[in-house]
Predict the structure.
Amino acid sequence: MSLAPQRLLGFAFASADLLLELAPDGRIGLAIGASEALSGSAETDLVGRAWRDFIDPRDRAMVDALLAGLKDGGRGGPIVVGLASDGGAERAAAMSAFKMPGNGGAVSCAFSRAAPKTSHDLHDKAAFEAAAGALIEAARATGQELEMAFLEFGGLAALRERVAPEAFLALEQRLIGGLRAQSHGGSAAASLGSDRFALVRQKGEGVDALVQRLITQISSDSSSGLHANARLMTLQSTASPAQLARAIRYALDNFINEGVSDGGTLDLNEMVDRSIKKTLADVGVLGAAVNDKRFRLVYQPVVDLKAGSTLHHYEMLVRFGDSASPYPMIRMAEELDMIEPLDIAVVEETVARLAAEPGLKLAANVSGRTIISPAFIQAVRQMLAKSPTVAGRLLLEITESAAIDDLALADRHLSTLRQEGCVICLDDFGAGAASLAYLQQLTLDIVKIDGRYIRELQHGGRESTFIRHLVRMCAELKVRTIAEMVENAAAEDAVRRAGVDFAQGWLYGAPSDAPASVIAPAVVGTPRPAARRVGSIDSWG
Ligand code: C2E
Ligand code: MG
Ligand code: MG
């Protein structure tokens, strides 16, 4: 039975809006379909043009890689690509490619309209975890079989030293394009460190073929010394979304820390089991830390910039065992719903120290998750009722590491705490997506500007504009500001000029076991009063 060409076309259009044939010289040889609606230019305008002009520049390396990886009879995609636009709305299409044997090396491509992508790059770890989780969930419904590839490239660092910077940049673009082209939809690949990458793809060719394909795409020069190890993990699992997320994180952490180890294909279900065991062990450690008060609190000074950078109060930072930063433990406690008992224990200890030292003012961190708990508010009220001298000297920093789900409830709780004499500060302002909503909907005394803006400040740039506007906005709302991570005189100068009220950071002192006096940095030009000891702190007002 022979099929008329129209009928073949009919089948092709059943799944595509536009068909393009790309000649080996990179020009569009044939264009059929709804080009105007898809790309804004008519089919006739496309013929004879280079395909690169049709694709968003940020996605060209990915399309390059997709095309270069096609053997005769081979298929690639679908990957979602941005279409080049002349400044109008962003347009995107899912692109599939097929290299028909005996067609003179031309590649037949089908494009169907798709939602534009938000990223044209490799994901970072957090974004990749989220993307992988969503893909696994979606694949459950469609029965699609997915797998994750962990890839470790040896020789990248050596190559960076050896070749010219532009050559290395081009190689890096090919690497990114190659990884994206092999990933599901062109947007499920991640960079996990200088030589480690991962991607999610539909179950397909073996791991050796994947590695070989990537290496040849990145560098056709066999003397490049580039080589790769890879391992696959199947992604079929019936675990809950939360368990899946933990298992993916566990697998990625293992890969980041230990690289690709030998062995066959990994199994996500095994990762779920292993991560559950690890979580239980961690919960034990955390539970014991809280119950037996197996943690320390260290003091970091906060200075008053408008009083010559003299000591204003200390922030209490928690420490577990000898590990320097509590952050991983805090995140875990938040995820496992164990942060509230920790926060209560820390506030309790802070209140005890305030009661013992009447000259002291201290700030304790409280997770955004804890602040919506009535039990926490009740606990703090009881502590303050028992130690009335503490009123006015306890500051609570609401950290943004966990989102506050119920802002109205949080604000009612904050106002209760304020009535009891607590000073309320929003920590890490600008780090989370919801910062402005928090500023708008919560009654605050102080806002602490996230350290990332401060560290960038000294280099000029847009952060200084952001901070200046934020400080002005806060002043109108009668909210004072703290700059954290002030590491040197240039940063202090910049935040002072921006009108920030208080500052904290290595310039004044690192966290230490006892309330140390402020280091008075010798700044040229601005004589500063000598540092003062704890006993002579000004009031909050
Ligand atoms: P944070 O509240 O924003 O604390 C500031 C962090 O920046 C601290 O890290 C501190 O050691 C660090 N730091 C201080 N000055 C500088 C500087 O000049 N440069 C740089 N690069 N870093 C500086 P740490 O102690 O690791 O705490 C991390 C986060 O853990 C805290 O961020 C806070 O969100 C959370 N955390 C700490 N203690 C507690 C606690 O008792 N309860 C809760 N819920 N969270 C806590
Ligand atoms: Mg803090
Ligand atoms: Mg902070």
